[in-house]
Write a structure and sequence with these properties.
78% helix; 51 residues; mainly alpha; 3 helices
């Protein structure tokens, strides 16, 4: 988990240095995909305890 946070921070820093405001396109796109997936297939309370 620590490597995921460090990798995300490093890639965010790099993107900010090279693309400025457009570096937000990828994270916002991933967030929109996650929201759409949750709207189509929400996790029920019963499933949440099994995983």
């Amino acid at each position: 988990m620590w490597f995921a946070y460090a990798g995300g921070g490093a890639s965010g820093w790099w993107a900010r240095q090279n693309w400025a405001f457009y570096s937000l396109v990828a994270p916002i796109g991933v967030l929109l995909i996650a929201i759409a997936t949750d709207l189509v297939r929400p996790v029920s309370v019963e499933q949440e305890g099994k995983d």
